[in-house]
C-alpha cells in the first residue's frame, strides 16, 4: 500500500507594490487565527494608494489583512 505525499502548500505571494496616489482593485486575506474571518479572502473594488501605502484591516478583529493582489484601475476614477 502506498500513500500519496501531502501537497506542498503554495507560499504566500510577495506583497503588491503600489504607485502613489492611484486607485487599485485589491484582494486581501485575514490571517488572524482567532478571527471569524480567518482564511477568508475579500475584494475591494476601489482602494486608494496614499503615497504608495495601502493598509486594509478586518472590521471584525481590527487586525491588518495580508494583501494578495492589486490591479491598477484603468481608467482611474474621477474625483472632484
Summarize the structure.
The chain has 80 residues and is mostly beta strands. 0% of the residues lie in helices and 30% in strands.
Structural commentary:
The protein is an all-beta fold and 80 residues long. The chain is built from no helices and three strands. It has a three-stranded antiparallel β-sheet with strand order 2-1-3, with no helix packed on it.
List keywords for this structure.
mainly beta, 3-stranded antiparallel β-sheet, extended, 3 strands, about 80 residues
| Strand line-up in the sheet with most strands | 2-1-3
How many helices?
Answer: 0
Which spans have pLDDT < 50 for at least 5 consecutive residues? none
| Rg over C-alpha atoms, rounded to the nearest angstrom | 16 Å
Strand content: 25-35%
Q: Which series of helices and strands comes N to C?
A: EEE
Question: What is the helix content?
Answer: under 10%
Largest sheet: 3 strands, antiparallel
**Ends: how far apart?**
68 Å
Mean pLDDT: 89
Given the C-alpha coordinates, what overall shape results?
A: extended
Main structural class: mainly beta
Strand element count: 3
What are the SSEs and their pairings?
Elements: E1 22-29, E2 41-49, E3 66-72
Antiparallel strand pairs: 1-2, 1-3
